[in-house]
Amino acid sequence: MTGPGELPLLLVTVGTDHHPFDRLVRWADAWLAGHPGGLRCLMQTGTSAPPTGAADWQAYLEFDALKAAMGTAAAVVCHGGPGTILGARHRGAVPIVVPRRHRLGEHVDDHQVAFSRRLAADGGEIHLAETEAELHRLLDRVAGEPAAFRTGPEDRATATAVREFGRLVDGLVGDRPGPRAGAR
To answer: Could you tell me the pTM of the whole model?
Structure first.
């Protein structure tokens, strides 16, 4: 995960949705300000205001760069998007998830809250942080025991999450009339 003498990486990603997620950037930035030198941090900020502290940041990361960072990070902090969560899980991370909230203008609805709570209730899928205090407590743990936020890729929990995501999508999309593949 890290080279000799290299600090563990904390990856923070807000995803690519056009809604800003300033809250997550601010919360992570505030924690980093109180813990200088414990972790190196890379933030993917999207349309959010960039961090003001010591974190390296980019508005967007190339997909391969994001995958690589997820695979080497001691911990991944992310929004509650199913694709990001499953991507982190696939790369061996048990992500710390801060779901976007509709009432704060962070998304179109609260599907991230519902999805994240469901995964947290299943146990071991994610670490859920719905408040700044919860996020900071989890980041304190990352600084003290970074290996606690890693697992083997493609474990049972990932397979369960993928099945659940498929079930949820099927429930939303359902069978819709229309031309079938190969039909003329």
So the answer is: 0.81
